[in-house]
Design a protein that fits this description.
By secondary structure, the chain is of the alpha/beta class. The chain folds into 2 domains: 151 residues, Rossmann fold; 158 residues, Glycogen Phosphorylase B (Rossmann fold, 3-Layer(aba) Sandwich), CATH 3.40.50. A 6-stranded parallel β-sheet has the order 8-7-6-9-10-11, with helices on both faces. Strands 2-1-3-4-5 form a 5-stranded parallel β-sheet, with helices on both faces. Helix 12 links the parallel strand 10 and strand 11. Helix 2 runs parallel beside helix 5 and helix 3 packs across helix 4.
């Protein structure tokens, strides 16, 4: 049986990159490479759907307007509808919003207050945000047109069920997110190239409030002998300036702007520990990349990242809202022997071949009208 699939994506996917775009393009590449009975078109408008397709595969539920149009048109054409949700708990966006006004202080109490204010303002001004009642109602409504959900982790599914109060388990299948695992990496000596000290703590990613670099800095403010390297492009000028201000006070902090992706692997290679205390990751591909290079990693606990699906016993887990806990886990990671072979072997399962195989099996099960469980 030949399967023709429409990958239904946002209109600007070619000009505005992101994790969803990587997932779309790599899933398509490996599905078509591994399976001769499947063909995929990427479409950016619901009008492009027609009866030549068997499956309408929607990416990114947060773009609810686009998702609605795709799902509605697909059902008019009697197509199966699949949704890669790419969903997480968006309530933490409240901290990002408050940070735009220069309010960067963060702990559990403050974040909960910000969430309540954000919910309240969304309700009062009847603005559709990713936490608003209108957004929730539309996600619940679109559910009747979706035959199969493909979240990237069990934790992602839990978040979606908690948000909608729906039981989605009988029509969901977990599809791993993945990373390119290079077999032969030409490592660059970044210590010499960028004048960096040895045994540094690394954080790779955009410099912005949601990535929570300040909490890592504050956690290690008294451990001045430990070098910290932030690798990434500043996306929030005020936040970046504050991070630089406190970095100068502490000392032994280094900023590297964007480098070619191949060179990023060298930063992992020479790092002692990679830390990602982000408030929203699913899963945080830089953490997988660091593991693939044999680097100990520290990641945020659930509900901020999908720990059990991706990191299990292979990472140090910290509360991103507690500088005390971050300090403790970073020091544990620094003082723990790195079993790089174990890390590299474990992370191999998060590859695009696996993603393609899981997706294909889900399509086949869907077309055979089987209930999907995991």
């Amino acid at each position: 049986m030949n399967i023709k699939v429409a990958f239904c994506v946002r209109e600007d996917y070619k000009t505005r990159g992101g994790g969803d775009v990587v997932q779309i393009l790599k899933t398509k590449e490996y599905l078509e490479k591994n399976y001769s009975d499947i063909s995929i078109d990427i479409i950016t408008n619901a009008k492009e759907l027609d009866t030549s397709y068997n499956i309408c595969h929607i990416f990114n539920l947060s773009l609810i307007d686009d998702a609605f149009k795709y799902a509605t048109k697909a059902k008019e054409l009697n197509l199966k509808v699949v949704c890669s949700t790419i969903y997480w708990d968006y309530s933490v966006v409240s901290y990002h919003k408050f940070a735009e006004f220069g309010f960067f202080y963060l702990n559990n109490f403050v974040l909960n207050i910000e969430k309540k204010i954000y919910y309240f303002l969304s309700h009062i001004f009847k603005k559709e945000t990713l936490v608003s009642k209108r957004f929730k109602d539309r996600v619940i409504e679109i559910n009747k047109n979706i035959d199969l959900y493909l979240p990237n982790s069990n934790e992602e599914l839990v978040h979606l069920e908690n948000f909608t109060n729906l039981n989605l388990r009988n029509k969901s299948s977990i599809i791993y997110n993945a990373t390119e695992l290079k077999q032969n990496i030409n490592y660059v000596n970044v210590l010499e190239k960028h004048n960096l000290p040895e045994n540094y703590v690394l954080q790779v990613g955009r410099i912005e409030p949601i990535k929570n670099q300040l909490s890592l800095l504050f956690a290690l403010k008294n451990e001045k002998h430990i070098p910290i390297v932030f690798l990434g492009k500043p996306f929030n000028t005020a936040y970046f300036n504050l991070l630089k201000k406190y970095s100068l006070k502490r000392g032994n902090v280094f900023f590297i702007n964007e480098v070619h992706h191949d060179e990023v692997y060298s930063f992992y290679k020479y790092a002692k520990v990679h830390v990602l205390m982000s408030l929203r990751e699913s899963p945080g591909l830089v953490s997988l990349e660091a593991m693939a290079c044999g680097c100990n990693i520290v990641v945020s606990k659930f509900p901020y990242s999908p720990v059990s699906t991706y990191f299990s016993n292979y990472a140090f887990i910290a509360d991103p809202l507690s500088t005390i806990d971050i300090r403790s886990k970073v020091l544990d990671a620094l003082n723990s022997k790195i079993n790089s072979d174990n890390l590299k072997d474990y992370v191999k399962k998060f590859n695009w071949n696996t993603t393609a195989n899981q997706t294909y099996e889900s399509y086949i099960s869907l077309n055979n009208n089987k209930n999907l469980t995991f």
